[in-house]
Structures are given as C-alpha cells and as structure tokens.
C-alpha cells in the first residue's frame, strides 16, 4: 500500500513483485482467492511464469462491469487463466460454463471464508475471548463497550462496514445520513463502525457521524476481532462481499449497501437484502429487523448457502489428485 495509489500503479507493482518471487521459488501451483487487484495481478504473473493457477471463489458475477469496480473485471479476467476454478455454489459454476469455461476445470467446493470463520469462532470459544479484550484491541470506547458489548448488555446494535469505490462521494453521504436517522428513530440502538482507511471513506464518515453519541467510529478491526463483533451484533449494514457469506453462518442478517451483488444465493435464501445507498430503503429495512422479532428470527435461522466449513479440505484433495 502507498498513499494515494492508483489501480495501474498497484497492478504493476504486484505483477513485478510476485513474478520475481515465483521465478525464484518455482511453486507447483499458485492459489488466488477472491476478486481484488492482487488476485488478477498475481494470476497474470503466475501465468507468465507458466505456473498453474487455482482460483478460490471463482464464478461470482453481477453482470455489471462497473459494479463492483474493479472487482467484477478482476474476477472475469482471472477465470480463463485458471486451471482449477473452485466455485462456492452451483450457481457460480453455471456462470462459468455459460461463459464457455470447460466444466472439467470447475469444482463446487463452497467458500473457504466459512472454514476460516468456524476456525476462529471455535478458538475464541475455547480461549474465552471477552468483550473487554476485543474492545481494547479494536479501540472501542469503554462506555460503548459496556452498554452494548458486555456479557450483560441487552441493547441492540448494528455493525457497519463500507469501502466500495462506486459509493465514493454521494453514496457514503447517504449511508451516513441513514445511520443518523436510525439512531434518531431508535435511541436505544448503538452503531459500531470500523472505518476504512481510504480518505474517500474517512472524510464523509467523520464529518457526518463524528458527533453522533450513538455511533462509535473506530479503526478497521483485525479479522479475529471482526468475527467476534459479527457474532455479537444484532445485524450488519455492509457493502462487503465476504460479510454476505460470513454473517449468515452466525445467524446475522445483512443489509447490503449495494445495488447489485455477485452473491445472489444469499439474497435468494433471505439472509441478505439489497438496500443500496438510499436512506429511505436502509431505514425501512433496519426498522423491519428492529421492530419485527418474527422477521428477525426467520432471517437469522436460514441456512448459509456458501458452505459447511470443509472447503479447504476439498480443495486440498483436488490439488493433490491433480499434482501427484
């Protein structure tokens, strides 16, 4: 990461750095996971070094190259470079076959993010990670932690994440407006917002939400602490792809602050709901979860369509069979 970096600069740096490492170490295969710029760049450099590529989380599509940007392009261009396409669901596999990808390269494995989630949650349960420990690590104000996170706390609270480029500017202003209105209409509700470090996110969030006493703005949480927070919150307001797969495993509904999603299975199952950045839509859907216990219970008990926690083992076996 460099301050103010552009996508072309990042892409070129990743290709150059990973290509040099691959040339020196000569791995038997390279796995890339997801749809970030590092995924496409690493796949390109592996291809240049004639190393077979496995794409974990392959086949996700929105059908719109501008949403999410540039992730939709990244995953589309990674697919034809891959020898193994590890698809989370039958829907994602069907997407690839429709694009002319050889079905023999496509494997439905679930998503490894669910494996990681179960692993971390199990360790936290064994080690007895407490609200105090998490609050100290994340930098959550003591008063907020006591009121909402402690073992005796009963009040509802919302966990928020946001970083999508397509929401820069007016989108994030509308999201923050919606959060303010939720806390005005539901004064018992707290909002915890680990704010992405991008200045395009920091500026509107701090300007609009910084003086709201019901909102705690903190630095981005490490993965283990974020899992703990997901497990403890009432529901999530997020534009993250991973959260759409993780939160349902914990029985947490997700209001997805996007107009499109490459994970329609969660929406179809009912665990996730698209709300975009429209304050009225966000407020209406938040009200439904906060005011209707039956609806909240229904959406909290739905089955996660993204895997059973055995994805990594399935991928390992496929690679061993292919490379042996």
Outline of the structure:
This protein is of the alpha/beta class. The chain has 15 helices and ten strands. The two termini are 37 Å apart.
Topology at a glance:
Blueprint: H1 7-25, E1 30-33, H2 37-48, E2 53-56, H3 71-78, E3 84-87, H4 90-98, E4 106-108, H5 112-127, H6 131-138, H7 142-149, E5 157-161, H8 170-185, E6 190-194, H9 199-209, E7 215-218, H10 223-232, E8 235-238, H11 241-246, E9 254-256, H12 264-269, E10 272-274, H13 279-291, H14 293-300, H15 311-323
Helix pairs in contact: 1-2, 2-3, 5-10, 6-7, 8-9, 8-13
How would you describe the overall organization of this protein?
It is a single chain. By secondary structure, this protein is an alpha/beta fold. It has 2 domains: 7-111 and 308-323, Rossmann fold, CATH 3.40.50; 114-300, Rossmann fold. The protein has 15 helices and 10 strands. Helix 3 links the parallel strand 2 (53-56) and strand 3. It is globular and about 60 Å long. The two termini are 37 Å apart.
